[in-house]
Amino acid sequence: MTRFETVADSVLPALLVLYGVASFAHFAHNAEFLADYPNLPAWLTRTQVYAVWFGITAIGVLGYCLLRARRRLPGLVVLAVYAAIGFDGLLHYTRAPFADHTGTMHLTIWSEVVAAALVLAAVLWLLVGQSGAAERTKAGSL
C-alpha cells in the first residue's frame, strides 16, 4: 500500500461522516421546505424524503461494514456507488433554473455534492491501488 493509499484509507471514515452530515442537511432541508423547492412532484412527502435518505445511507453503511470486514473490493465498490448517489442533488437544477433556488438550497445541494466528490475521489484512489496491488501480486508470482 502506498503512502497516499494509507492516508486515503485513514481519512475515508471522516469523509464518510462529512458526506453523511452534508447529505442529511440537504435531505432534511428538502423535507422541511418541500413546498419551497421549485417544481418537485406534488406527490412527494416529507416522510418519503427522509426514507430515501435512510435508504441511501444504508448503502454507505453496508459499504463501510464490508470494508471493515476485510471485504475490501466489494466494500469500495459499494462506497463508490454511495458516493456517486451524492451527485443526485444536482438534479434540482434540471427541474428549475439556478436562480429559482434559495441560497440555503444551493448551500445544502453543493455541500452534499462536494462531500460526495471527496468520498468518491478517496474510494477511486483506493480502488486503483487495490487493482495495482493485485497486478503486483500476480506479477510477483510468475
Description:
With 142 residues, the protein is an all-alpha fold. Helices cover 77% and strands 0% of the residues. It is elongated, with a radius of gyration of 18 Å. The protein has one domain (3-35, 45-140). The mean pLDDT is 90.
Q: Helix share of residues?
A: over 70%
Computed over alpha carbons, the radius of gyration is 18 Å
- What count of structural domains? 1
Sheet having the most strands = none
Query: Care to count the β-strands?
Result: 0
Q: Order of helices and strands, N to C?
A: HHHHH
If helices are DSSP runs of H or I spanning 4 or more residues, what is the number of helices? 5
Distance between the termini: 20 Å
Structural class by secondary-structure content: mainly alpha
State which percent range the strand residues make up.
Answer: under 5%
The average pLDDT is 90
Question: Which word captures the global form?
Answer: elongated
Poorly predicted sequence stretches spanning 5 or more consecutive residues: none
